[in-house]
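Your task
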Amino acid sequence: MMRALGYPRLISMENFHTPNFVLVSEVLLWLVKRYEPQTDIPPDVETEQDRVFFIKAVAQFMATKAHIKLNTKKLYQADGYAVKELLKVTSVLYGAMNTKGVERADVSEEDSSKFKFDLGSKIADLKAARQLASEITSKGASLYDLLGKEAELREARTESIARPLEINEAEKMMKVAIDCVLEQVQKTKDMLNNVALDEANLEAKIEKRKLELERSQKRLQTLQSVRPAFMDEYEKIEEQLQKQYSSYLEKFRNLTYMEQLLDDHRRTEQEMFEEAANMLRLMQNRLKEEEQQLLKSGNNDDSDIEIQEDEGSDSEVEDRQIMKQRTATETLLQGRAGARIVGTMQGGDTEEDEDSGDSEIDLDEDEEEDDMEDDSMEISPSKSSHRARKPEPLEESDNDF
C-alpha cells in the first residue's frame, strides 16, 4: 500500500520486530502530509515529551480531519501493533485512490476541479458521519483533558497504593456497607409485605364487586320477569293510535285526491268559459259583418223602390218582393233587438196607398209568415247555434272567478 501511495523507501514487517519510533514517526508524518499538505506538525521526536506531543498531534489530526481513531499507546510502542494503527490510515488513502480513479501526478488542476461527487443517494450516511465526527471530536477533547490530568492522578494513585491498609478502617467500611445492604433488604421485604397487603385488598374489592354484579343481575331478571301494571293500557292505546293513524292517512289521501279533482274541474270551467267568450266574440263580429252587408243591400233596394214609385209602378209582384226583403230585414233586426217591427220605408205616400198596402199585407200575411220563418232560419243559423251553445249561468260564479 505504501508503494502504491508513493512512499519513497521500502518497508517490511522486519523493520518493526524491534521498536522503531523514528520510522513510525516518519511514516506518520508522510501520511499526514499526504492527506493534507498544509498541515504543520512538529517532527521533533528526540525527547520523550516531544514523542508524546507528536503522537497526540497526529492522533488528534486524524480524528478531526479523517475521522480515524488511532490508539496512541500502540503507536508509541512503535512495534507490530503500531503497524495495525498505521494500516488504518494507509487503507483509507489506498481505498480512496482505487475508488476515485486517481490518475498520474501530471494531471492538471483543471481536470481535478471537474471531478464531481454524487452524494445525493448518501445524504443519510452523510448526516450520520457528521454526527459521529462531532461525537469523536468531543470525546477526543475530553480524553485529551483526562490525559493532561494523568500526572496528578498518577501521583495520587501511587500514594494510595503505597499507603498501608488499616484493618480498623476496613472493618468500619465493611460494617457501613453491610448496614446499607441490610437496610436495602429490609426495605425490599417491607415492599413485598405491602404488595401482599395490596393484593389482599384488591382481591377483597374484586369479590365485593362480583357480589354486587350478581345482585344487580338478579334484580334485572326479576324486573324483566314482572310485567308492569300499565302495560295493558299502553298496548291498547298503541293499537288505537295505529288505527287513528291509518284513518288519518286514508283521509289525507282522499282530501288530496278531491283537491286535485277540484283543481281540474276549475281548470276545465275556465277553459270552457274562455272558449265561449271567444265564440261570442266571433259571432258578434260575424253578425256585424252580415248586418253591414244587409244594410248595404237594403239601401240599394230602397233606392230602386223610390224610382219605381216615381214611375208609378204599383204591381203586386214587385210589392211582394219588396215585402220579402223587408220581412228578412225585420227578422234579422228582431233576432237582435228581441222586438218585431212591421212597416214601410216609403215616405210621402197618401192614405189610400197606405190602406192598399196594409190590405195587401193582411191578405198575404199567412203565406208570408212561412216564407219569413224560412228566411229567418236561413239568415241567422249562427244565432240559433249561439243561443244553443250559450252556457248557463253558474250559481257560484264569484268563487270561480
Remarks:
- The longest helix spans residues 231-311.
- DSSP finds 15 helices and no strands in the chain.
